[in-house]
From TrEMBL:
This is tRNA (cytidine/uridine-2'-O-)-methyltransferase TrmJ. Catalyzes the formation of 2'O-methylated cytidine (Cm32) or 2'O-methylated uridine (Um32) at position 32 in tRNA. Residues 35-187 form the tRNA/rRNA methyltransferase SpoU type domain. Keywords: Cytoplasm, Methyltransferase, S-adenosyl-L-methionine, Transferase, tRNA processing. Pfam families: SpoU_methylase. InterPro entries: Alpha/beta_knot_MTases, RNA_MeTrfase_TrmJ/LasT, SpoU_MeTrfase, tRNA_m1G_MTases_N. Its main location: cytoplasm. NCBIfam families: rRNA_methyl_1. The lineage of its organism: Bacteria, Pseudomonadati, Pseudomonadota, Betaproteobacteria, Burkholderiales. One of its GO terms (molecular function) is tRNA (cytidine(32)/uridine(32)-2'-O)-methyltransferase activity. Belongs to the class IV-like SAM-binding methyltransferase superfamily. RNA methyltransferase TrmH family. GO terms for biological process: tRNA nucleoside ribose methylation.
C-alpha cells in the first residue's frame, strides 16, 4: 500500500501526580476515542479485513471516506473478510471527504509509504503512537488515516494530518496490504494504551507527558476542522495583502501548514491567528473573511 510492591514500614513514598488517575482513564478511553480512517478504499475485502484487525485489538471506530463500493459495509466479500467483526463493519461511518472524517479530531496520524516534500517528518509506528498517547491523555478524539490501496494518500490529505508515520518494511518488498497496515498500527497503539494504563505506569513517558503539562502546551488542542478554517482565513488575509498570489501560490500554504503542524496548535492560538487575519481583511475592506 502507497498505503510494580508495597513499601517497607516507615519508608517514604512519592505521592502520585494528582492527575495520574485521570490520565489513566483517558488512555483507557483511547480505545473509543480513536478513529481509523480509510480514504477511498477500493476493495470490499480489505475493508472487512480492516474491521477484523480493529476488533482484535479492541478498537471499533471505522470511518470510510468515499469508498469505491458505496455500501461496502454490506458487501458480501467485506462481511466474509470481517469474520466475526460484523458489528465494527456495520457501524462504519461513511463520509464524502477526509475533512468530514476528521471533524472534531484534535490529532491525526497519516500513514504513508513514500517520502513527502511537505508535511511533518515521518516516524516509525512505535514512536508515533507515543504521541497518540499524549494527545489522548489531553482528551478528545484522534485519528489514524490510511490511503487508497493503489495510490495511497494525496499530498493534500497528508498536509491535513498532524503527524506522519511510515512502516519500515523490507525495502526490497515494502508493499503492505491495507488491512495489514491497519493491523500493525492498531497493534502498536493497543500496546501503548495498555502499557500506559498498567499499574505503576505513572513513570511511562506518555503518561508523564499527559499528566503534567507538556512544555509549551497549556491548553486543549484545536480540532482539525477549526484548524482548517484558520488556514482558509489566513490564506484570504495573505491574498488581501498581496503576499500570496492565488494564480501562482507556489508552496506557501503547504510550508505554513508544516510550520503550524510542528507547533501543536491550541484552540486559543487558532483564535489568535484568525483574529489577526480578520483585522487584516477588515483593514483591506474585505469583510472579516469568515
Amino acid at each position: 500500500m502507497h498505503p510494580d510492591s508495597a513499601a517497607p514500614a516507615g519508608a517514604q513514598t512519592s505521592a502520585p501526580h494528582p492527575d495520574t488517575h485521570d490520565v489513566h482513564e483517558s488512555l483507557a478511553g483511547g480505545f473509543t476515542s480513536t478513529r481509523f480512517v480509510l480514504v477511498e478504499p477500493s476493495h470490499p475485502g480489505n475493508v472487512g479485513a480492516a474491521a477484523r484487525a480493529l476488533k482484535t485489538m479492541g478498537f471499533s471506530r471505522l470511518v470510510l471516506v468515499a469508498p469505491r463500493v458505496p455500501q461496502v459495509h454490506c458487501d458480501p466479500e467485506a462481511v466474509a473478510m470481517a469474520s466475526g467483526a460484523d458489528d465494527v463493519l456495520a457501524a462504519a461511518h461513511i463520509v464524502p471527504t477526509l475533512a468530514d472524517a476528521l471533524a472534531g479530531v484534535q490529532w491525526s496520524l497519516a500513514l504513508t509509504a513514500r517520502t513527502r516534500e511537505y508535511g511533518p517528518p515521518p516516524a516509525a509506528p512505535r514512536h508515533a503512537v507515543q504521541d497518540a498517547c499524549r494527545q489522548v491523555a489531553h482528551g478528545g478524539d484522534i485519528a489514524l488515516v490510511f490511503g487508497n490501496e493503489r495510490t495511497g494518500l494525496s499530498n493534500e490529505d497528508v498536509e491535513r494530518c498532524t503527524a506522519l508515520a511510515h512502516i519500515p518494511a523490507n525495502p526490497a518488498y515494502s508493499s503492505l496490504n491495507l488491512a495489514q497496515a491497519v493491523q500493525v498500527l492498531a497493534y502498536e497503539l493497543r500496546l501503548a494504551y495498555l502499557d500506559a494504563h498498567a499499574p505503576g505506569a505513572a513513570s511511562h513517558p506518555a503518561v508523564a507527558a499527559g499528566a503534567a503539562a507538556q512544555p509549551g502546551v497549556a491548553g486543549p488542542l484545536a480540532a482539525s476542522d477549526d484548524i482548517e478554517r484558520m488556514y482558509v482565513h489566513l490564506e484570504n488575509a495573505l491574498i488581501a495583502l498581496d503576499f500570496l498570489d492565488p494564480a501562482n501560490p507556489k508552496k506557501l500554504m503547504s510550508r505554513l501548514r508544516r510550520l503550524f503542524a510542528r507547533s501543536g496548535l491550541e484552540r486559543e492560538e487558532v483564535n489568535i491567528v484568525r483574529g489577526i487575519a480578520k483585522h487584516i481583511l477588515m483593514l483591506k475592506g474585505k469583510g472579516d473573511g469568515r
